[in-house]
Amino acid sequence: MAAHIARSDFNLIGSGAAILGMMIYGASGFYLGIDLPPAPQKLRDLSLRGLGSRADAVELLSAAGTFLTAVVAVIAVSSIILDEVARPRGAMSVFLGWALGASMQIAAGIIARTRTHIS
Hints:
Layout: H1 2-6, H2 16-34, H3 41-45, H4 54-81, H5 88-118
Helix pairs in contact: 2-5, 4-5
C-alpha cells in the first residue's frame, strides 16, 4: 500500500515520514482489529435491537475493516505488479479506503478492550 502511494505524484502522502506513519498505523490497526479479546458473558447476553449482541457488532466492525484494507491492498499490489503509475486521485482513493479500514480495525480493538475492563 505504501509503495503504491510512493509511486504516485501525490506529494502530500508520498514522503518517507508519511509512509512510515502509514505502516505503523496499519500495523497497529491489524493488531488491534485481529486480536480481539472475548466479550464478557454479561455483554453477550445484551441484544442490539434484535440483531445480535454488542460483541457481534464489534466483530463485524473488525471484519469489515480487515476486508476493506485487504481489498485496497490487492488493488495497490496489482497496480505495482502491472507497473502502472498511480495518479494522485487514484492514490488518494486508495489511501482513504485503507485509512478507513484501518480506523475501523482500531476502533473495534479499542471498544473490545474497554468493554472487558468495564464488566
